[in-house]
Amino acid sequence: MKSSVWKALTPEKKQRLYLFLILLIVVVGVSAILIYQAYNEHLHDHQREMVHIVKSRARIIEAVAKFDKQYSSNFPGGTREATLSQIRDAHKNFEGFGETGEFSLGELKGESIHFLLRHRHEYGTTSILPPENIAMDSLIATPMQKALKGESGLIIGIDYRGKEVLAAFEPVKELNLGLVAKIDLEEIKGPFIEHGLVALTCGLTIIILGTVAFFKFSDPLITAIRKSEDRYKAMFLKAPLGIAEIDSTTGHIYDVNEQFATIAGRSREDMSRIDWMSITHPDDVQEDLDNVSKLNAGEISGFQMHKRYIRPSGFPVWINMTIAPMRVDELGNPRHLCMIEDISDKKEKELLEGRLDRIMETSIYEIYIFDGNNLNFLKVNSSGVKNLGYSLTELTDMTPLDIKREYNKESFKELLDPIRNGGQDYVYFKTYHQRKDGSAYPVEIRLQYFESENPPVFMATVLDISERKKTEEHINKLSRAIEQSPAVVVITDREGNIEYVNPKFTDSTGYALEEVIGQNPRILKSGETPEAKYKQLWDTILAGNEWKGVFHNKKKDGTLYWENASIAPLKNDDEEITHFIAVKEDITERKKMETTLLDHETFIDSIVDNMHDGLISINRFNKVQLFNARAEKIFGWTSDEIMGKDLTILTPDDYREKHKVGFQNLVETGRSKILDATIEIEGLRKNGESFPLELSVSEMTQGEETWYVAVVRDILERKENEEKLRIAQKQLLASQKLASVGELSAGVSHEVLNPVNIISVQTQMLKRKIKDDERIQLFCDKVGNEIKRIQKIMGGLLEFSREGKTKLEMGTLREHIEKVIDLVEQEFNLDNIIFERKWCDRLVDVKYDPDKMRQVFLNLINNAKQAMPTGGTITISCRPIKVRGRQYHQFSFKDTGIGMNENVATKIFDPFFTTKSEQMGTGMGLSIVHGIIEEHGGEIEIETQEEKGTTLSINLPVAS
C-alpha cells in the first residue's frame, strides 16, 4: 500500500517530500544544538556564580575570625567559638539559595570530617540523613575533602542525598575550615528541557503548516518555472548568438547552444569534452587569461574582446565574445555566461581596410581622395599631409584647386570630364603643388574616378618629382660639363668600342665624332707604349678598379703626343660592368718642360755635388732634406743614411741642447745671429770624432714652405796650422823674453851677488864678535834674512832665464801627482787642509819631463795652501778635452780659498808679480810654471772668484 502510494507520487512531489523531511531534520537538529549551547552558557554562568559565592563567603568568615581574634578574647569558648557562633546564627536565617542550593562548613577531626552547620535537606526526608561526621575518604564528601586540603575550585558530583550537584569549594584558612556551596543540576537543567520541548513543538507545527501551504501554493509557481525553463531552453538552443556556460577558473565548458557549436565548428557533445583555451588561437590566449584573472579577482564584473577560435580544420574564425557572471555552483566554482558572435566577415573587411590604409599611409606617393561632387578632400595620406604642410583637418575644408593654383574651375573640370564621363580610365598630367608656406614643388599625377562609391570619389596618386628634376638638371650640367670639358672624355662598351667622345677629343686627336664611333681606341696607338702596359690596364679595369697611366699616342696626322689617362669601369645596379670611361689630358708640353727641368736639375745637382764646401738643407722641423757629396766626406754619413734625420746628429752632445733652442727661436721669430753670417762651431763625424767647422746659414722660402741652407767647411787642418803658428809665435816671444831676461840676469847677478856675498860675510863676522849685544844680534839676523831673499830672487831669475834641456817621458802623470801630495799632505793636514782626488775613468798618456812637472805640481799646491790661511780643500781632477780640434788631457787644481779679482788674475803669470808678503814669495813661481807648461806644448788656464776659490788647470797634449 505504502509502496503503491509512493510510486503514485510525481517526481516533483517526491522532491517536495524529501525537502520537507530534510527541513524537519534540520529544524530539530538546529533546535537541539541551540538548546544545548544555551544550556552550556547557563551552566557556565552558574559555575561562575557558585565560585563567586563560595569565595566571598569564605573571605567574610575569615574577616569575622580576624575581628574576633582581636576583640572577642573574653567570649566563652574563645575567639574561634565566637566566630562559629555568629556563623550558626546567620545560617539559621539563611539556609541556602534557589530551591536546592545550600552551604556546608566542616572541619577535620582525626580521619573524619565534622560538619558544623545543619544541612538544608536534613529534615523532611527519612531515606538519607546527613551524619555530623563522615570519613575523610567518603565519595559523597569530595568537595569538602578538597576544601580541607586547602584547594579551591568547582566540581560536579554526588552529595549526601545521592543527587548530582554542582559544588564550589574554598578553604577558610583563618579557622582551618572548609566551605562548600552546591546546587542540584536538575534545578539548572529544568528550564531548558521545558523550553526546548515548547520550541520543538512550535517549530514542528510551523513546518507542517508551512509545508502544507507550500504544497498548496507551489504548484502554479512550479508550472510557471517549468514553462520559463522551456522558454529559456528554446531561446538558449535557438538563439542567433553562440551561448555557453563555462567555468572561468578551469576553462571547462558545461553547455553550449547550437549556434556556439556551429561557430566553433564542433558538435555540442564535442564542446562538453574540451575547454575554451584548447580552441582559442595561441596569440589570443594570454589576453583572454588576463581578462579572466581580473574577472575572478573582482577587478571587473565582465569583459568583451575580439578573439579567434580554431576550428578542427585549422581555419580560424573571428568572434566578438562577451563574458558575464552567472552563478556559483554547488562546489563553489564561479560559472559565467559566454556569448559569441561570428565577426569573420566584418574582421576580414576591417583587416582589408587596415591593410589598404597602411599601404596608403606607407606609400611613397601622395594619395588624395576627394568628393566627386563638391571636390572637397575626404582623405589624404601622411605623405601628402607632410609635404603640403597642412593638417588633415585643414585639408578636409580644401579642394585640389587650393593647391593647384594654375587651374581654375573650368580648366579643372575639363581635366576631370574624360574620366567622369567614362571616356578614359585615368588622366595623367604634370603640375605643381603649392605648400602651406607658399613654396611649390613639381608633381606627376595619375587621377582615377570611382563612381560606385557613395558619394563618387576621385583618387589622385601623386609623385613628388623634385629630386628627379634636380637629377635631370644635374645630368644636364654633367653633360654640358663633359661637352665643354678641357679634358678628353671617351666612353666605350665592355669590348672597348667607342660609343661617345667629347669635342675636346676631336681637338686633341684630329678625329671627328663620326670617324671614331664603333672604333677601338687602338687607332691612337703609336707603338711607343709597351704591350705589357695595355695588359695591365685591361686586367685592372676588368677587375672593377681604376687605372691611371701615361700613353705616347699618335694623332690622325701622325704627330706623336703624350697624354695622361684615367680609365674606370661603369657599373649597373647589379654591379655589372657595362662601359668604360676614360678621362685624358694632353701633357706633351708638360713632358717637354719636365725634360728641360730634369736637365736643369741634373746641372744643379752636378754643381752642388762638386762644391768644395758641404751643402746641407733642412726643413722647419730640423730634418735633413739635402746632403751633398762634400758633406758626405766631411761628416762620414751618406746622403741616404742622413736624409730625413734630425740635424742634431751632426752636433756634439755638449752643443745639442743649445742648437735645439737656437733653431726653435729661428723658426718662431725668423731671427738668429747665425742667419746670413759665418761662424765657427764644433761638428760631429759619424765615427764620433768632433772637429771645428765654419758655418754659414741662409733662409729660403718656396710657397708656404721655409727651408734653411747651411754651407759648412771643415777647418780642422786650418786650425791645426793656426795652432802651430800660435805656438811658434809664442815660443819665439818666450825665447826673446828669455833672451832679454837672461842677458839682464847674467849681468845683474854678478854685479848684485858679489856685494851681497861680501855683506853676508861681514854680517856673520859682526854677529860672532858682538855676541852679548842683543840689539846687534837682531840687526844681523834681519840683514841675513834680506840677503837670503835677494839670493832667492836672483836664483829664480837665473832659473827663469836658463835654457835647460827637457827630458821627456810618456805616462799618465797620476803617479807623480800622488808623490807630490804624499810629500806635503801630513804638513798640510796640520793646517786643516785636506786633499780630494777625482780621477777620470780613463787616463791617457802625455809626454812630460818628470822633474819639471813635479816642480809645476808643487808650485800649484803651495799656491793653493797659501790661499787658504784658515784651512780648506784642494781638489785634484782630470779629464780629456778637445781644443780647436786637438786632443788634450787636463789636470785641475782647485782650492776653496780667498780667490782673486779679475785685475789680479790677468797678472799672476808675470815675473815678480805677487800678492803675498815679501817674506812669503818672490813672484816667480807661476811664471816658472807657465814657462814649463809652454815647453811641453801645453796651456794653463785660471778660473777664480773672490771668496769662492781658484782653479788652475794645465792642458797637456795627448801623446800620439
Kindly describe this structure.
This protein is an alpha+beta fold and 960 residues long. It folds into seven domains: 11-192, 2-Layer Sandwich (Beta-Lactamase); 243-348, 2-Layer Sandwich (Beta-Lactamase); 363-469, PAS domain (Beta-Lactamase); 485-592, Beta-Lactamase, CATH 3.30.450.20; 611-711, Beta-Lactamase, CATH 3.30.450.20; 715-799; 804-957, Histidine kinase-like ATPase, C-terminal domain (Heat Shock Protein 90, 2-Layer Sandwich). Helices cover 45% and strands 26% of the residues. The protein contains 26 helices and 34 strands. Strands 1, 2, 3, 4, 5, 6 and 7 form a seven-stranded antiparallel β-sheet that branches. Strands 9-8-12-11-10 form a five-stranded antiparallel β-sheet. Helix 2 (11-71) runs antiparallel to helix 5 and helix 21 packs antiparallel against helix 22. The radius of gyration is 72 Å and the shape is flat.
Name the helicity range: 40-55%
Dominant shape: flat
Question: Tally of extended strands?
Answer: 34
User: Would you give the CATH topology of the largest domain?
Assistant: Beta-Lactamase
Cα gyration radius (Å): 72 Å
Determine the number of helices (DSSP H or I, runs of at least 4 residues).
Answer: 26
| Main beta sheet strand tally, sense and closure | 7 strands, antiparallel
Low-confidence stretches: 123-129
| SSE class | alpha+beta
Beta-strand residue fraction = 25-35%
Report, as a whole number of angstroms, the end-to-end distance: 165 Å
Please identify which CATH superfamily of the largest domain we are dealing with: PAS domain
